[in-house]
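We emphasize that the prediction below concerns an isolated chain of 582 residues; any contacts that depend on oligomerization or on bound cofactors are therefore not represented. The input was used exactly as deposited, without trimming of termini.
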Amino acid sequence: MLIQRKWLSIVAAFMLGFSILATSPMACLAQQAIMEKNATLVYEQGLVQTTEYGKVQGLKEDETLIWRGIPYAKPPVGSLRWKAPQNPEAWNGVLNATQNAKEAVQAKIMVPGTVGSEDCLNLDVYRPDTKQTGLPVLVYIHGGNNQTGSNTEINPNKLAVKANCVVISINYRLDLLGFNPLPALKTGKPLEDSGNYALLDMAKSLDWIKENAKAFGGNPDNITVSGFSAGGRDVMAMLISPVFKGKFQKAISFSGGMTVSDPAASIKVIAKALAKLVVEDKVKENEAEANEWIQQNTDEVRAYLYNLPAERVVRVMGNAAIRMSGFPHLYTDGVVLPKDGFVTKKYNSVPLIMLTGSTEFSFFATYSPYFMPAQQQKTLLSDPKIHSEAQFAIKYGSLLYGLFNTEESAATMFGKYKAPIYNCKFTWGTDESIVGKYMAELVGAHHGIFLPFLTDENIGTRKMFPGAYANDGVKDLTDKFQTYIAQFLWSGNPNGNGLETWEKWSNANNGPTQLVFDADKDKAIIKMSHERISYREVLKEIETDQTITPEAKDKIIKEVLNGRWFSGQLDQQFANPSLWIQ
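Result of the prediction step, given as a token string:
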């Protein structure tokens, strides 16, 4: 059963009072101003609601009310391109919020040209078609390596009803428009000089959400930030960022993990990529001169960058393929993110869920250049040699990626993080009798496996392999996973009556590690695991593995597993001569 709203209101009021006492006078004044503005916002069941910036009209789909494309900041165009986001302009009349919004301008993988717009700072709101107010707010940040994607990645219609919550999915600046530390873009303002513009967008969206949550029946003091893949890594970055302190009360990182980049090293990578444009535009004669020139802090360089069409800017980095070297972002500037990154002792400690899949690396392996010929010829399953090599890459890439997403992060935070951490792992998708041989052996519990279960929508592999999902076990697992999430949104504790107990992560020997989500054809199978495997143990197993030839093993380690978020120790262990093969 979900916690009663009245009890939540008492708890929220107590916590708010405590936080105000603990903050500075200026912070108290800011909090008071937000509370006074919130007092004027009233949700009344219907399609038209009044925000701080004007009225919005949405639409109804089944049991859900939806408002699409609401601006949370001014368009970051022209002189605002590489600036901190500004409050949106108020509008007269009623804003039509019934159509999908503009996504951030981006270069899609393996697709010519670009899509989207620089005018992308908008969000979608979903809530049950009821009169109830004081609902918890779930904020969702899409994936795509912070280079691609949009807030339509998730369709939370059913989730909003099942969890009885407000779901808000945001768009934000991507690629070099969202992350760029070049000296010429610095303004003397510490936040802007960080180069972490996309994180500033996310912080701005959370300010807007706190300010306007009541307009949609949400509780501005019960906000959970969540994100998938790059969005999950962004959520993890929020946990160490002073900019995000107090902006949310809980967090969920779906396949996230800890990644940051050094600003000085990132400047060199980005300058090298942009140098090609400088030569194309005949500003400099060769890339060496262009590289040096683009790193200068001059009006000439600044003007050049601001006049570049966005469509050209977002195509120079290419697909980084979960390699920070391909597109360095999340800079440890010392203001937005601490210089010591996740080694910091100062966390924004809130109840946290971290999730992974048991074959998290499957798509990254089988769609890598090494396996692409077999992918195109459809021989990944039929050719015994290729099949064994694919199994090797999936197995070890997934073990390392899974550790990165959950347990290694928990271990890094342990002793410094002052709130509960709940880890979980999906293993559903690996039973051949349910999902078939191809999915079981080459896809499995892949990156994003949780999405169909979170949303109960026909997305991801539920669309690719519809037969695998057409059983009572999937229905039961969906219901229970959504119930855990609902409990967490309301109370900060995912446990509830009728659910397998989800224990907090512990670094104790034989202590609880993660809740495992699986199902047979008839029912969910959910159990708490105490099993542990270390990074070093995985590397040792790779060394002794004889399922493929030594030549194939060496090649896969150095071309498929190398240079990933999770592969630092692997790269060192196997003396990779080029750690960052693209």
